[in-house]
Amino acid sequence: MKIRTVVLALGAVYLANSYVVERFRRRNRPHHQDVPPVPPQSWTSPAVGV
Asked: pLDDT tens across 3-49, in order?
């Protein structure tokens, strides 16, 4: 019973930490990286038979 409680507590702490770190990473990402640095200059045809 004690081991189960410890494992559940560690799992909850791990998930909470992952959520917080992901929020920090998303918030600190520069917004100018959402668009490509250079507009496309040409287009290619899709591969045939793939």
From this structure: 999 999 999 999 999 999 998 888 777 665 666 667 778 888 888 87
The amino acid at residue 18 is: S
H or E element that contains 28: helix 2-28
* CA gap 41, 35 in Å, rounded: 15
Give the distance from CA 50 to its chain's centroid: 29
pTM, two decimal places = 0.51
DSSP letter for 46, please.
P
For residue 48, the 8-state DSSP code is: T
Q: Which amino acid is at 28?
A: N
Domain positions in the chain are 2-28
